[in-house]
Amino acid sequence: MAKAHALLSASSSERWLRCPPSAKLNAATTETPSEYAAQGTDAHTLCEYKVKVALGMESKDPTLQTASVEDLTYYDEEMEQCADEYATYISELYSEVKDICPDPIVLIEQRLDFSRWVPEGFGTGDCLIVADGTLYVIDYKHGKGIEVSALENPQMMCYALGALELFDGIYDINSVCMTIFQPRRDNISIYTIGKDELLAWAENTLKPTAELAAKGKGEFKAGEHCRFCRVKATCRKRAEYNLELARYDFEMPSILDNNEISAILEKADQLVSWVTDIKEYALEQALNGTEYPDWKLVEGRSNRKYTDEKAVADAVTSAGFDPYEHKVLGVTAMTRLLGKAKFEELLGGLIEKPQGKPTLVPKSDKRPALKNNAATAADDFREDN
């Protein structure tokens, strides 16, 4: 089962649905555990405990130390606050559902089987609230680097299918409400889809593509979904995709037309990401003995640092100087110190959010467009303002 999960997991479904052959390539590659993944695992463990307590279920507190072992390596105040917010959201939603359906059930960290559409496909749903009418699927995301949307999110849709397999005959379900709860991005994304529409997607899109992916067939396709691919640094299709920019010969934008500039902007971020991935991969390989023509390993630049900060502070203090910086904590750090409620009580009237500098984004971005007034833009967003 572990191999099947690695091959066509719900969490990687966005990638293999867009690029079916990538599934087998990733399964054949060893995954390097990351600190971010370990932090996310700890956050999910804490969230599970918090939700169970909020709903009156028995659960062991993972923050308590047993013997000399601490269950949560990455536990901190921010994680505690995020888990509290998640538990509050779940308990409030459950109360709302109970007003409509007298006997809903809540399942935490529920194993979900969607192998009817994906060969040996299964996953774990963070939280399900099952009731007549609507099935609720909630997924906690601890990451803050990328904002995750619930809109047509294939991972969530796979979980929803697995939940329907379990409960559609028990409850009269006609729609599924999927929620991404991402507190570190202040993001609660909600998407509702009809049961019939979801099942049609499963039969017409998910199932045939999963069959191709399981066999290593289909066409390679590069795009934003390459972000979490284990072979992204050496994938030829991704290289071809990004090297298409070479046809512009990197001329100055002044001699490109608007359509050409738009094409470059569309790929610019992915191009930067691709080059970064190549450099990181090449460095790792070079450290392991690989030699690249015209390149060599050297010692990078470094900054001076103290060998003993306490000794430095004592020496400077003895000489009659103050060795410490004194400044007010930043907004994020102060929020962590005080907690959101206390922060708003004490400092809510002392906070402002300056206007951000203009930036070009795809039209699919949910932020409203700025008024295109070139006459005022230069004055409003000068570097020296």
How would you explain this protein's 3D organization?
With 385 residues, the chain is α+β, with helices and mostly antiparallel strands. It is 43% helix and 12% strand. The chain contains 13 helices and seven strands. The radius of gyration is 25 Å and the shape is globular. The protein starts with a helix and ends in a 5-residue tail after the last helix.
The gist of it:
By secondary structure, the chain is an alpha+beta fold. The chain has 13 helices and 7 strands.
Lay out the secondary structure.
Elements: H1 2-7, H2 13-18, H3 22-27, H4 35-54, E1 65-66, E2 69-70, H5 77-98, E3 105-113, E4 122-130, E5 133-140, H6 154-167, E6 173-182, E7 187-194, H7 195-215, H8 236-243, H9 258-287, H10 309-318, H11 331-338, H12 340-347, H13 374-380
Parallel strand pairs: 5-6
Antiparallel strand pairs: 1-2, 3-4, 4-5, 6-7
Helix pairs in contact: 4-5, 8-9, 11-12
